[in-house]
User: Which sequence fits this backbone?
């Protein structure tokens, strides 16, 4: 019986060690290269413009990561539909990066099309979210003409090529809701729903193993008392 208890104890120790590694390694690997979901606020410099003021992030420069860019998307607060503006903004050298969005025509045609294809016709509410992407940003001077470019924009001095090779993308930020009729930020009342909280399988495994260990210890104590 003692020999069996020793084997069970050794097995439990090994399982606990492996579970701990499974929990720690993915977190440490992601924290080095993957940006975190951005934090930002919204400002209204005038009645026609929305500004997303994003808190800049630190990153570890390498041969394939030298910059962070930001995308934004608009979303219907009451549905999963969303539209992403792929015209990114490069992270500034200051504490924040400002992404300016004209909200009405003629300068806001892109934003208007995004909203019309995403938000219901009768809705005046819109969610904004921001995503951070790490990667390598480069500006290169190229000789010759712009491939496929209009003749009026060609120059004998060549052209400038801007590229960004994406490395890792963050999760989308927590949404901020704007009332477009008043150009103000609003807080929506969350709908009540009964949901079962997620419980990580690794934590569940550790709890089960700890319970088994406790039962073994109690069993051994009972045996010693009986003898």
Assistant:
């Amino acid at each position: 019986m003692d020999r069996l208890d020793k084997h069970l104890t050794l097995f439990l120790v090994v399982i606990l060690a492996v579970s701990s590694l499974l929990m720690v390694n993915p977190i440490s690997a992601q924290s080095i290269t993957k940006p975190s979901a951005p934090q930002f606020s919204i400002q209204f410099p005038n009645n026609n413009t929305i500004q997303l003021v994003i808190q800049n992030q630190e990153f570890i420069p390498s041969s394939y990561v030298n910059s962070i860019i930001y995308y934004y998307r608009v979303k219907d607060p009451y549905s999963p539909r969303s539209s992403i503006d792929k015209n990114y903004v490069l992270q500034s050298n200051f504490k924040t990066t400002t992404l300016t969005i004209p909200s009405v025509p003629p300068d806001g045609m892109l934003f208007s099309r995004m909203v019309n294809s995403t938000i219901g016709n009768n809705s005046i509410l819109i969610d904004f979210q921001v995503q951070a992407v790490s990667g390598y940003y480069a500006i290169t001077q190229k000789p010759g003409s712009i491939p496929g470019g209009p003749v009026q924009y060609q120059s004998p001095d060549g052209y400038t090529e801007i590229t960004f090779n994406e490395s890792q993308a963050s999760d989308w930020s927590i949404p901020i809701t704007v009332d477009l009729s008043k150009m103000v930020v609003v807080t929506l009342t969350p709908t009540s729903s009964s949901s079962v909280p997620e419980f990580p399988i690794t934590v569940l495994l550790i709890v089960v193993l700890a319970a088994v260990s406790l039962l073994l210890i109690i069993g051994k104590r009972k045996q010693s008392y009986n003898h």
The longest strand covers residues 125-142.
